[in-house]
Amino acid sequence: MQERLQKIIARAGVSSRRAAEELITSGRVRVNGRVVNELGAKADLRDDKVEVDGRRLTAPPPVYIVLHKPRNVVSTMSDPEGRPTVAELLSGVDARVYPVGRLDFATSGVLLATNDGAFSQGMLHPRKGVPKTYVLKVSGRMDGADLEAWETGVQLEDGKTRPAHVHFLRHEEDKTWFEITITEGRNQQLRRMGEATGFPVMRLARLSFAGITSEGLRPGQWRHLTVSELQDLREEFGVPKRVRSAEGAANAGRVFGKIKARGQDRSPRTESRRADDRGVRERAHQRDDAGPPKRTQREEHAAPKRTHRRDSATNERTQRGEHAPAKRTQRRDVETPAKRTRPDEQAPAKRTQRRDNPSIGRSQRSADEAREPRKARARRP
């Protein structure tokens, strides 16, 4: 699916969407080898080659998160007023994820987050009619007729709301608790419905989104969607396109995140960093406490080895130095003269014999006369 380049760049983790627009206008982005400096340009990482400063962008693996958003937290990645955002709660996710839809600042509950743009668009499309269940506390005692008005639809400034499912819970003095399931996502729809019917909303929390609940999650905690949950979403709403063992499949069911109430940081990335820091500190303390003896012991063990090698090498060189001259002298005095003397003594005799009797040759002598000297030498003791 083709998307705007700034969204592709931001999803790849290169920069924010606004910074990505500056990269595009400055001519630092190429699509299929051509420089693109128009903000409206689109591309698809599956089919197109997108480069930023010569580095090719690749599509990250899909990540699907469910977060239990606390109250008084903005469901955006940044806030100009400096209020807490969900980006701080999702800082432990090893991907650049974005919320699927929004929850009001004072509303808590289920909030999905992902880096899959097609998934987010499919879950928010009005034609999908994705159900969202809320629990409300309104001011005033509502009766059956009042609840039926919410169920059939309330006329608002932007039109009448779709039919909803309402389930009464209880009354608390002059207040009413009930659950409602809607299939549209207008801005502050439930709060506007309360104002229109004369029952202002005092408390509001989302219990489920497309069947995904925050069960087991405390405010500020999150987890990866399981494979079965993704398969159910695909069968009912057509997204995600592929159900693979996503990046969080190994951690499916595990709870991560920051518990704002207690100030505990339980994100996997921060936990791993803290564990690494603790391990480094422990190893450092161990080296400080037991380091000098270990180094001294190593030096003591290493020194004899080096000394022994040097002594043995010296002894070998000394022994070689003492015996080598004797061996060389013996070879020169005994072996070499003996080898040189025998040929000198015998060769002249043969040459003299041949010179004295030039007419006698090997071809002229008989075979017995030629073998007789050899047999005589062989018989000698």
Salient structural properties:
20% strand; alpha+beta; 42% helix; 19 strands; Pseudouridine synthase; single chain; four-stranded antiparallel sheet
Question: How would you sum up this structure, described in words?
Answer:
With about 375 residues, the chain is α+β, with helices and mostly antiparallel strands. Among the domains are: about 5-55, Roll (Structural Genomics Hypothetical 15.5 Kd Protein In mrcA-pckA Intergenic Region, Chain A); about 65-270, Pseudouridine synthase. The protein is built from nine helices and 19 strands. The protein has helices at about 5-10, 15-25, 85-90, 115-125, 145-150, 190-195, 225-235, 270-355, 365-380, and strands at about 5, 30, 35, 40-45, 50, 55, 65-70, 100, 110-115, 130-140, 155, 160, 165-170, 175-180, 200-210, 210-215, 220-225, 255-260, 265. The strands form four sheets. Strands 7, 8, 9, 10, 13, 14, 15, 16, 17, 18 and 19 form an eleven-stranded mixed sheet that branches. A four-stranded antiparallel sheet has the order 3-2-5-6. Strands 1-4 form a two-stranded antiparallel ribbon. Helix 1 (about 5-10) crosses helix 2. The protein is elongated.
Distance between the termini: 107 Å
**CATH topology (fold) name of the domain at 64-272:** Pseudouridine synthase
Number of distinct beta strands: 19
How many helices? The count is 9
Low-confidence stretches: 260-275, 296-300, 322-341, 347-356
What is the CATH superfamily label of the domain at 64-272?
A: Pseudouridine synthase
Shape: elongated
Gist?
The protein is of the alpha+beta class. It is built from nine helices and 19 strands.
